[in-house]
Write a structure and sequence with these properties.
This protein is mainly alpha-helical and 135 residues long. The chain is 45% helix and 6% strand. The chain is built from six helices and four strands. The longest helix has 16 residues, at 86-101.
Length: 135
């Protein structure tokens, strides 16, 4: 991978930006508007790590056990991250703007007041959910 600061190629870009530029990976990604989930290692290194994991699968899985219970996540759960990169924020904002452009004010059938988002009003005020038929 190519460093956007000095222009040199590295297999472990995260290590390079810390040791050479004293910048953490999250700061580097923010600086250049990269997605937070983007990997900073080359595909070759990623492939080698995957092969090594598969060869030593049992050893690594034992490290995730603590007192006979799974330590990290239950099956089907996702990790909740508290950090959202500027790129992810921008994408979410664009989706919200797109949805809001298509909204039309509607009148509440109960209190007869016009709302931009009738679904939210119905739930928050009257504890009702509107079901739309797609037939």
């Amino acid at each position: 991978m190519k460093c956007k600061i000095c222009g040199k190629e590295f297999d472990h870009l995260g290590s390079h930006i810390w040791h050479a530029h004293k910048i953490k990976a999250n700061e580097y990604k923010e600086m250049f508007g990269l997605p937070h989930k983007m990997s900073l290692i080359s595909k070759e290194i990623k492939h080698k790590k995957r092969e090594h994991f598969e060869a030593n699968r049992e050893k690594y899985l034992k490290n995730f056990l603590k007192a006979g219970k799974k330590y990290w996540f239950k099956k089907g759960e996702r990790q909740v991250r508290g950090y959202i990169s500027p790129y992810q924020k921008k994408q979410a904002l664009l989706r919200i703007i797109k949805v809001n452009k298509n909204r039309k004010p509607e009148q509440c059938p109960i209190c007869k007041v016009v709302f931009d988002n009738l679904d939210t009003h119905l739930y928050m005020k009257h504890r009702l959910l509107r079901v739309k038929d797609n037939i």
